[in-house]
Write a structure and sequence with these properties.
Layout: E1 2-3, H1 6-34, H2 39-64, H3 70-103, H4 109-128, H5 130-133, E2 137-139, E3 145-147, H6 151-175, H7 179-190, H8 193-204, E4 205-206, H9 211-232, H10 242-254, E5 261-268, H11 271-278, H12 280-297, E6 304-309, E7 312-317, H13 322-342, E8 351-358, H14 365-389
Parallel strand pairs: 1-4
Antiparallel strand pairs: 2-3, 5-7, 5-8, 6-7
Length: about 400
């Protein structure tokens, strides 16, 4: 291990941490101003706040390191305890955020309790007792900070948690079909890389503070990705939004791609009735179920999925055989019926669908949409006829 005298690296460490503090504060207030108070945004703000405070605390540890006096010694122990506890808080907030963004739901309580909270409580106990036993850190007679025998183990444990979450994100990446979701999952997997590199370098070059300035970079990358997602992704369903769909079709045209494509339009039946009689939460749930069904069906394909607006969805796929598309529509409708039964929904959950095929020749997308829309409304008329003949 390369050892540097902390007095020689003091200016560097304080300067890097102070700069990172300012950047992190700017990012935090950007989150608070521009993003709604959803569960994932709340976790992200807490993560940002914890990163800010650990950077600020790291500055203090360098400034008081080696200062003489009982007051400085007590202050040194308190600040270092706070520093180590903040590491656990950052890991916890990131694990919760990453899990929610990967699976769209909070960590199961039992899994969180036994796999994360209880181990973290044990680590917290080791940190709190370090002034007595020096396990995680200790101060020598000159009040200089030293790593304890378990300091490296604490870092390795947190590293394992981050790597596990990165692995889960990469597994989901292989299953995902949406381009923007793939990018988000890539970033979640990459999030741990900068602090891991910083921690490894810091472990073998004692005297430099690198972990948390690099963690601040990871947070900046998350903000950048979140901004991009807000522009191109539908907030409720996570599918591409209409703007991104138009960009996709425009880019395809500019690239001169003349491969045959099929455009499928889907419309949730009786969506106004669902909203009016069961509430907007039920309507939102129906749209989320619909997006999940489409993801499942088109997983591993080249299909582009988007929420066109309201209760309408669009699927663009490289196919021009009508029989294949008809089979896909039948599969979609059966999945909607199965979803309605599996979740015991209080309303009939089904869709009307229409499609149009472009053979690869120059054809305006507006014409393609018009033909698919006409077919969809014919299908919706048949749905209402069947409903009138067999009222529930």
């Amino acid at each position: 291990m390369i050892h540097f005298d902390p007095r020689e690296t003091l200016l560097f460490n304080v300067g890097v941490n102070a700069f990172s503090c300012m950047i992190t504060a700017m990012v935090y207030f950007r989150y608070k101003k521009d993003f709604a108070d959803t569960y994932d945004n709340l976790l992200l703000r807490r993560l940002q706040a914890a990163v800010f405070w650990i950077l600020f605390t790291d500055i203090l540890t360098w400034l008081i390191n080696g200062r003489a006096g009982k007051t400085m010694r007590m202050l040194g122990y308190c600040i270092n305890i706070f520093y180590f506890v903040l590491q656990l808080a950052i890991a916890l907030y990131w694990l919760r955020y990453a899990w929610y963004r990967i699976f769209g739901q909070s960590l199961p309580r039992k899994r969180e309790l036994f796999c994360i909270l209880l181990p973290f409580m044990v680590l917290g106990l080791l940190i709190l007792t370090s002034p007595l036993n020096g396990w995680c850190f200790y101060l020598d007679e000159a009040n200089r900070y030293h790593r304890g025998p378990l300091a490296a183990s604490l870092f390795i444990v947190l590293l394992v948690y981050l790597l596990i979450m990165s692995g889960i994100a990469l597994i989901q990446y292989q299953k995902e079909t949406l381009i923007d979701r793939k990018k988000e999952l890539q970033l979640i997997a990459f999030f741990a890389v900068p602090p891991i590199l910083g921690g490894t370098a810091q472990t073998f070059t004692y005297g430099f503070s690198l972990i948390w300035p690099l963690a601040a970079i990871s947070c900046l990358l998350v903000l950048h990705e979140k901004d991009s997602r807000a522009i191109s992704q539908d907030a409720l369903t996570g599918l591409n939004n209409r703007r991104n769909m138009e960009r996709y079709l425009g880019a395809r045209k500019e690239a001169g791609q003349n491969r045959p494509i099929a455009l499928i339009l889907l419309d949730v039946n009786d969506f106004k009735h669902i909203n009016d009689h069961f509430g907007h939460e039920a309507g939102d749930a129906a749209l989320i179920y619909a997006s999940d069904i489409l993801r499942e069906i088109f997983n591993g394909t080249d299909a582009f999925l988007a929420r066109y607006g309201g209760d309408e969805f669009v699927i663009v796929m490289p196919e021009n055989r009508a029989e294949i598309i008809e089979d896909i529509l039948l599969k979609i409708k059966k999945r909607f019926e199965a979803c309605s039964q599996a979740h015991s929904l209080p309303f009939c959950f089904s869709v009307s669908a229409g499609y149009a095929v472009c053979s690869g020749e120059s054809e305006k997308m507006s014409e393609l949409f018009a033909r698919a829309d006409e077919r969809m409304y014919r299908d919706k008329a048949l749905y209402h006829q069947r409903k009138a003949m067999h009222p529930q």
